[in-house]
Design a protein that fits this description.
single chain, mainly alpha, 6 helices, about 140 residues, flat
Length: about 140
């Protein structure tokens, strides 16, 4: 086995265990708060999404095939997962109107990433979208 596969497997296990811990922490709550529970499950879904991404990387070998192909797949999965984690934290600390604004901003950025991805695929007829990758990276960091 190569080191990349072992790293991806370790990350897969790490995300599953973290998601399990966050999910099971629900059992230790005395008083349920709707906001905290919603935040908890948003973070659990994000952790499971990241674990699925590592499993997909191991099975199909996108990262092993090419770094740019792996980066495209990572951006497509990391952005909504990290947005869910951010929204889970932000949900606890903010008002509903500010949360709506944050949801719209995260959704808009992800929609722009999907548009760039689709345009790149239609131009290059493959997952190797070349210059579109840099635009996707810029949007992801935004």
């Amino acid at each position: 086995m190569d080191s990349l596969f072992l790293l991806q497997f370790a990350c897969f296990i790490f995300m599953l265990i973290n998601g399990l811990f966050v999910g099971l922490s629900h059992l230790h709550v005395r008083w349920e708060n709707k906001r905290y529970e919603r935040s908890r499950w948003m973070i659990v879904v994000a952790m499971i999404g990241l674990a699925i991404q590592y499993a997909v990387q191991m099975v199909f070998g996108f990262r092993a095939a090419d770094d740019s192909l792996g980066a495209v797949i990572n951006i497509l999965v990391y952005t909504p997962c990290f947005s869910l984690i951010s929204l889970g934290i932000y949900n606890i600390e903010t008002t509903r109107s500010n949360l709506r604004k944050m949801i719209l901003m995260c959704s808009g950025i992800y929609a722009a990433i999907i548009v760039v991805f689709c345009v790149g695929i239609s131009l290059h007829h493959s997952l190797y979208i070349r210059e579109g990758l840099y635009l996707m990276l810029t949007l992801c960091f935004a």
